[in-house]
Amino acid sequence: MTSEKLHADVVVVGSGVSGGLVGSLAARAGKSVIILEAGPRVKRHDIVETYRNAPVKLSLANMKLQGAGSPYPSMPYAPSTYGDYLEQLGPVPFKTSYLRVVGGTTWHFGSALWRLIPNDFRLQTLYGRGRDWPISYADLEPYYCRAEEELGVSGVDGQDEGGNGGGTFPPRSKPFPMSGLPAPYFFQRLPEQLLPAGYHPVLEPNGRATRPYGQRPVCAGNNNCNPVCPIGAKYDGTRHVDQAEAHGATILPNSVVYRIEDDASGQIVAVWFKKPDGTEHRVTGKYFVIAAHAVETPKLLLMSQTRHSPNGIANSSDQVGRNLMDTSGISMGMMAAEDMWPGQGPTELLVYLNARDGEFRKNYPQYKTKLRNVVPTSQIASGLLSKGVVGKELDKQIRLQSARSIRWAVDFEMLPLPTNRVILSAEKKDALGLPVPAIQFDIDDYWKAGREAAQIDLKRIAGVLGGEVTKFGLKPENRQHPSGTTIMGSDPKNSVVDEWCRAHDHKNLFIAGTSVMSSSSCMNPTLTAAALSIRIADTIISEI
Amino acid sequence: MKRIATLLAVLPLMPIAAAAWAADMPGSSDLIEKGRQVAVAADCAACHTASEGRPFAGGYPLQTPLGTIYSTNITPSVKNGIGAYDEAAFARAVREGVKPDGTHLYPAMPYPAYSGITDADLHALYVYFKSAVAPEDVSPPKTDLGFPFNIRASMILWNMLYLPYQRFAPTAEETPQIARGRYLVDTLEHCGTCHTPRGLMMGPQSGKDLGGAQLGAWVAPNITPDLLSGIGTWSDEALASYLKTGVAAHLAQAAGPMGEVVEHSTQYLPDGDIQAMIAYLRHVPSVKGQAVHPRSEYGAQGGDEASLRGLTSNVDLGWKTFSGVCATCHQVSGQGRNQYPALFHNTVTGADSPDNLVATILFGVRRTVDGQTHYMPGFGDAAAWTDQLSDAQITAVANYVFKQYGNPSMHVSASDVAKERNRGSLASSMQKFLSILGGVFALVVIVGLFALLLRRKRA
Amino acid sequence: MIRLSKSLTRSSVMPERRVMLGRRSMLLGCGVAGLLGAAGYSSVLYASDQTDFLKVSSILTGKDDLDPTLAARYEASLTRHQADFPKRLNILGHIIAQGSYKDVESLFASSLMPSDRETAMSIISAWYLGVVGEADQAELIAFSDALMYQPCTDVLVVPSYGAGPLAWGEKPPV
């Protein structure tokens, strides 16, 4: 341990969107802030060039190659989740890939920024499934508005995100901060054909700028949201880290927090971190916010077994690490009957939400049916070449298949099951000697029932479009939306944090991120995590 | 950005505001409209509108190393603005930079150019401000510069030397169109304030009118008809497009202070005025510069993508930075695409000074025309951390771009870049003022020395 | 001009000289392309060209505007991945010259040995994907210059090279 004294009003572990937001808001309110990040701070152009130079390119178009490569650094002290860092205990592999760099996983998110709908907060009451949240949609609505402004969300006002083709839903007190992106031809033509069959198109609210937003330029359709927006038109967590820093916060990259220290009164006193050279350091503070991602946050809490908290920090309920959810889904490949040209503009946008809510949720989960909008060229070309297609036919087929290959994906809501969990690996350790996360995960009958329903739906869609189904992916595909591992609830016996995201066990400890979500919904969880983080910041600022 | 938003909000509303105020104020609506047009052509809003919803209320902060200068409130507020000014007082402030109480304005206010405003236009301007602009009872923060710049009277001396005190009047030799163009270029748009080089005392250099001048980090280029250094090779369409939109395809795009001029003023000029300005610019005497080749005709599509892609070690820093930062928008061969301009046949990369390229990299481009903001983020200190480039990277990429796409004789060093970085942190519209202030300072020093010498001789 | 290309090809095998060579070969390449253009491009491979990677590549891909710099880099890389590649190229070139094949379609319609077809596919694959070798050994030579992007450039961008702010939405050409 060094003699350097590190102390702040607010100590934040994790520099992603959640940690960055809390840090930034606290710093903007004049509080002293330290943000610790396990990974390094990276330059956009370095990531972009690493991506371009990589022979195997990670993309939403080659999901099976997830894990094969990422342009983000994998450091011995903060190994990339694209390698074999996560230990899979099965039976279903939980292949989530988060980023351990300043700014966090939003660097490579597709930037879908959805709100939940009111009934998502009352799953148990309404449908006898999962859990209710201790807060309602109305409680969170003002924070959703603020989160949309902070993150710079562009969206189409007046859309029914309930999927019924009605007016604005869920209810909102403010319009989107930026108007929606123009729909590429694909997203104009396909809805024309599906609408008569009762499928109401919804254009995804997202974090891409449609006018200069702060320092962010306008989205240029680089079609590279994952793995990196080359121009920074898409929101990522570095925006708030920068803001925090501009307001006096200290950012400590390459600082791997491995222990949280509490005292007999239940107060958190300090966090301990290691530098890449193995040296150990202590940071004290008044308030602590753990915002380290839904896999790393429970890992850190579980590693922090202290005299006062023998099961780990915040874990008197034994719920830390449990209730791991995702929006794992299935997929369908299709050749359209006419040229559709997916891949223009950014990577995602059009979804169908016919199964967003209803009595069916008693029997099978809410789901979202979405279209991939990724330039498919490299997958198509490799496929054709492996079949020996050459010459003029090769060019002809590349063009034809690029214009007509439609890739559908379905995301399901998953239930919080105590048996789906993150634990500490018994054997594997990283270069700092810290245990890696081990994940135990399975799908249940509820999810399987959803798969049946969605399959029927997908086939019907293909039929309406007159397309030829080329492939069904029916094994659960991880959608990189982990949640639930420090679940929110009003009962300290079966939940980790209260409605304010404050740990039941520790008054000055807050948990920010998707890990607090009581239900996953089928939607991308980032905006909900951001809204909750703003609420955390308000609480902390008012108490200091 | 605020100013952009304000302008967007305000300009379309002006006729409405005019109607509302005209009801109980003197002046016909034609006169008010004429005054509004004069105000637009003279680019008043650029400096006098600071906050959204308060047009012309002043308070726009110009950060300078000498302190912050705030623009004045020119709404008809009696307490804080020009409400108590009669037309003669208003005219004196505009044309001579002297307030009714005798206080001298700093020449951030381009009154040496405005001294040419005709009596008819000045009357219209006065009526417009008095009757169509809403009074705002807000007092801009007080400007308080340190010694010797707080001696506003020092401006008297400078004015004696350089203030023309002469109204514009058409001459017998010029056509009405050229006369109108001369009035717009020399008086209302005050082009020479930036484009005419300054002498030791920061007065305009004789015989160098519109011959190009340094403006802090930026260069206001030669806009005389000289074929090599000026705009002699530009077509009328290109010049008109540049003034109306800020872009002349495959030639130039307005950034920095010129972006502001297009944004706040020239985009709103009637086509006849644009044509008049072009006619006059074609007519002014050519000023020969250093250029050996027109700045818009350097370079070609190409690059090192084929030879360097995929290599991860020992890759030229200039190309690497170009590829990671520039090529995403300007494309791998520098050819640009849609809104993104090509890097060759571009006056920025073909200039005979490296400043505008370095300034563009450092500070970016932001220009709102016809409601649409063209924005290139800068890569200097104001950029997001992840996008900030070092002096070494900017040096390498600027030199790479000059060699590959522009004037290959240009070369910058890391210290040039560091210098630009500091210069450019000043508000761009402040640059013209600073140079004049420098002149005033020189004058003060000279007069001071002179006085000292006299005293010593007497002793 | 053929001799010129050959000398390039040989020296380009030395990896440490690749960067320098890239620029030089491009200049030379432009000259070659210019001459070809002036003379009228012929897709016939003469016996003397059978080891000319660029010419063989032209016939295999059906493109007469291949970049000589990339050709040199692909050839060097293929040789790095397959020591006997020069020999294979020689054999394939010989077959093409002997049979006077003018395009890959007629070549592949002939009774080509599997190993020669494999050689041809490795060359085509390199040009189209911009990548030589597989899995851990894969080496990227070209990204935006990979031929696979060409058939759709009027509609789709090469990912990470955007078309400009909100520059999409029109119905693509047929």
Structural features, described:
The complex is a heterotrimer of chains A (544), B (459) and C (174). Chain A has 544 residues and is of the alpha/beta class. Chain A is built from eleven helices and 18 strands. In chain A, the strands form four sheets. In chain A, strands 1, 2, 7, 8, 9, 10 and 18 form a seven-stranded mixed beta sheet that branches. Chain A has a six-stranded antiparallel beta sheet with strand order 6-12-13-14-11-17. Among the domains of chain B are: 157 residues, no CATH class; 117 residues, Cytochrome Bc1 Complex, Chain D, domain 2. In chain B, helix 3 packs across helix 7. Chain C has one domain. The N and C termini of chain C lie far apart (40 Å). Classes of the chains: A alpha/beta (544), B mainly alpha (459), C mainly alpha (174). Chains in contact: A-B, A-C, B-C. Chains A and C meet through helix 2, helix 5, helix 8 and helix 9 of A and helix 6, helix 7 and strand 2 of C.
Short description, anyone?
Chain A is of the alpha/beta class. Chain A has helices spanning 17-28, 44-53, 123-127, 137-151, 185-194, 238-246, 296-303, 377-386, 391-404, 445-465, 526-543, and strands at 6-13, 33-36, 87-91, 154-155, 178-179, 201-203, 250-252, 256-262, 268-274, 280-290, 329-335, 348-355, 367-372, 405-412, 421-429, 435-441, 468-477, 509-511. Chain A has a single domain, classed as FAD/NAD(P)-binding domain.
